[in-house]
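Researcher: Let's do a round of design. I'm pasting the structure tokens now; please hold your answer until I've finished.
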């Protein structure tokens, strides 16, 4: 106890010296040990600074070089941040990690942790993993658009914190990492964040951030085992699609949508919704008995009953409300009533080039997407409308089966299926330009046998008229 106190006093004395000699020590050109830059971000009231303490200042900590980072700042949270950041500018894949402990903090939410940011702007896109002084440890945090709010979750008491960024086919994957003694794993409750091409610049800001979480105080953290790595494996395993079909499944651009309503709402959820369309009865459930089954062909999937996602001009869900041509765009709620407890299956074939792709859903409630029989992702089962992106790899260029299962429990109900292009543009999957060319991946509807017969008798033109 006495020994520890002594070390603390020495450290504080040293920091006071430096602060006096070089007020703020915030010259971004200062090189401090492994860090080429250190500066205050977001104009915290108190000046922060980074000190290189040399090797093994604290007995028993081995030969790691140690840094003392002092910081003010309101927080790293919300739409903009205040902190002191010791960092490097990095091009290419990077994983930055460190261990650390608090010297002093006056606020329980003071945070230290590794971060990767798009820039040193206070409202930059970033991901980081933080230990607070008294509260959550190993908390993953991220901002996916400049100036947007912060998402975060976490728990546990990790030995080390890390954050990783890797580029796959132009898409940026970021992971918030903790090591609790068994190697790197995703911070509790976090998933890989997928960013469209262009969101992160070619050169990013990667380093260690500290905020005092209160502009009336400075906080000080001792940081060690700082590592920058460019050759590492992501924790997340992304799906790989490998079995293309012999050819295009039909000549109807777009999707076949079938909506069903279960005869009983007992146990209503993903398993029951899948059961409706496969005919399998989940154990203990009355489903798949159903009271409604209606099919329609749409060029894109942009449906709502109540609420909406990112794209307007919605159609209503087939069978749930009257024919969409009678009410277009669909009102909120469609046909004036908020319908609950129904599901949709969307079938198509999609032409995909070899490499990485992002499909996803903006849905209320959940959506499962399969490509080539491989589940590329599923959102939370019960959720509000928000964009959820799934990154997957295509092994061989060709036509692939596409299936989405969506369900509504209560409250809002909408479904949009989207694609994020290599330009970063987010489009409705299957969208066409004014000349009838697909903007992204070509999509054609999988017709049922009965529909094929109908099409043979001239129904195709009927369907096409209805869509236009
Ligand atoms: Ca919509
Ligand atoms: Ca309705
Ligand atoms: Ca509803
Ligand atoms: Ca809902």
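Researcher: That's everything. Go ahead.
Model: Designed sequence:
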């Amino acid at each position: 106890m006495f020994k520890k106190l002594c070390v603390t006093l020495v450290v504080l004395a040293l920091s006071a010296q430096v602060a006096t000699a070089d007020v703020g020590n915030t010259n971004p050109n200062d090189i401090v040990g492994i860090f080429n830059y250190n500066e205050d971000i977001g104009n915290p009231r108190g000046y922060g600074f980074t000190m290189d303490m040399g090797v093994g200042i604290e007995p028993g900590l081995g030969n790691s070089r140690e840094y003392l980072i002092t910081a003010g700042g309101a927080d790293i949270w919300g739409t903009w941040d205040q902190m002191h950041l010791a960092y490097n500018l990095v091009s290419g894949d990077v994983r930055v990690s460190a261990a650390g402990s608090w010297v002093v903090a006056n606020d329980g939410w003071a945070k230290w942790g590794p971060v990767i940011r798009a820039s040193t702007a206070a409202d930059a896109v970033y991901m980081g993993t933080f230990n607070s002084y008294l509260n959550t440890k190993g908390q993953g945090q991220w901002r996916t658009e400049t100036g947007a709010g912060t998402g975060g979750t976490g728990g546990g008491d990790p030995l080390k914190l890390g954050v990783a960024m890797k580029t796959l086919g132009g898409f940026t994957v970021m992971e918030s990492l903790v090591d609790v003694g068994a190697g790197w794993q995703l911070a509790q409750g976090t998933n890989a964040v997928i960013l469209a091409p262009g969101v992160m610049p070619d050169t990013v800001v990667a380093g260690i951030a500290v905020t005092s979480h209160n502009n009336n105080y400075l906080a000080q953290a001792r940081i060690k085992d700082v590592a920058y790595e460019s050759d590492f494996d992501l924790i997340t395993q992304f799906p790989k699609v490998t079995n293309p079909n012999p050819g295009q499944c039909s000549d109807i651009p777009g999707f076949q949508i079938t909506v069903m309503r279960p005869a009983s709402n007992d146990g209503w959820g993903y398993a029951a919704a899948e059961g409706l369309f496969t005919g399998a009865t989940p154990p203990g459930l009355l489903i798949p008995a159903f009271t409604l089954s209606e099919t329609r062909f749409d060029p894109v999937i942009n449906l709502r009953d109540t609420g909406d996602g990112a794209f307007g001009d919605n159609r209503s869900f087939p069978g749930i409300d009257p024919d969409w041509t009678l009410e277009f765009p669909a009102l909120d709620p469609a046909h004036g009533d908020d319908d609950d407890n129904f599901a949709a299956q969307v079938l198509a074939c999609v032409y995909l080039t070899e490499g990485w792709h992002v499909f996803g859903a903006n849905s209320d409630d959940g959506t499962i997407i399969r490509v080539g029989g491989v589940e590329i992702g599923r959102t939370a089962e019960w959720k509000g409308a928000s964009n959820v992106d799934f990154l997957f790899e295509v092994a061989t260029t060709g036509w692939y089966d596409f299936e989405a299962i969506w369900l509504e429990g209560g409250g809002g109900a909408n479904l949009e299926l989207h694609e994020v292009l290599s330009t970063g543009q987010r489009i409705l999957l299957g969208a066409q330009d004014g000349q009838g060319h697909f903007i992204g991946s070509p999509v054609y509807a999988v017709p049922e046998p009965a529909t094929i017969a109908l099409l043979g008798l001239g129904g195709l033109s009927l369907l096409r008229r209805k869509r236009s």
